[in-house]
Every structure is written in C-alpha cells, then in structure tokens.
Amino acid sequence: HHNNMIQNILPKIEANLAGAADSIMLDVEGYVAETNATNLFLVRCDRQHDGITMDKDNNLSGCEDAVLVTPTADACLPGITRDTVLLLAKELGIKTEVRRVSLSEFYSAHEVFTTGTMGELTP
Predict the structure, then answer these.
(1) What is the per-residue pLDDT across 95-112, written as a single tens digit (0 to 9) for each?
(2) Of 58, 47, 123, nearest to 85 (Cα)?
(3) pLDDT value at 27 more than 90
C-alpha cells in the first residue's frame, strides 16, 4: 500500500457522477477488492426454501446455511471494522469465507454491505 490516494479519489468522483455513493474497486486480476472508501461483504445463501424474504426486523428469512463472504485483504486495507465483523460472525457461529470474490458473485448475492471506520456497517 502507498500514500497516493488518487486511485480512490477518481472512482469516488465517477461514482458521484453516476449517482452512486461509492465505486467497487477491482484488483489487477479483476476480482473485487473493496470500495473506494470501505470494505465489502456479501451474504450467500447455500440452501433456501420457499423463497428468501426479509422479515419485519430486516433479517434474511427462508435461508439456511448463510455464508458471510469478504475479499482477501491482499488488494485492500484490512479494516478494523471488517475484522470486528469477522470476529462477531465467528462468535455467533456464522460461517465466513475470506477469499477472492468475483464481481458476478456480488451481483448474485442475497445481501451486500460495507464496513468502515467512518461509515460503520452500511447495507
């Protein structure tokens, strides 16, 4: 990592021009790394029944064996909030995967959220 933040500033400007809050950043091989300002997570449902819906408390229902997935920190900063989410998931018995993640996995995820010191946890 380095001190030059232009690679994060330009995508933020592009996101703003497109009406989005942030840009998804890819590593040099085209895998998802982070947004221009936060770490990314997705929730994948390995088994589902009767369709997946959100209940009144915004919990994913109809999903069994949910898996929390986040990109490896090879091409992004390993954020403190990211580490806290991974620790809490482990304590709660939620299966996690830290690995290379394709952009298509984010498109097909059941849920996606970001973490960051400034933005905390944001759906």
Answers:
(1) 999 999 999 999 999 899
(2) 123
(3) yes
For residue 53, the cross-strand partners are 61
Report how many helices (DSSP H) and strands (DSSP E) the chain contains, helices first: 3, 7
Tell me the whole-structure pTM to 2 decimals: 0.80
Q: Which two tokens stand for residue 16?
A: 């703003």
Alpha carbon 1 to its chain centroid, in Å, reads 20
Nearest residue to 65 (alpha-carbon basis) of 25, 96, 42, 111: 96
Residues paired with residue 64 on neighbouring β-strands, in sequence order: 47
Sign of the alpha-carbon torsion through 59, 39, 70, 89? negative
Q: What's the CA gap between 52 and 115, in Å, rounded? A: 24
Per DSSP, 82 falls in state: H
118 vs 76: which has the higher pLDDT: 76
Residue predicted with more confidence, 1 or 33: 33
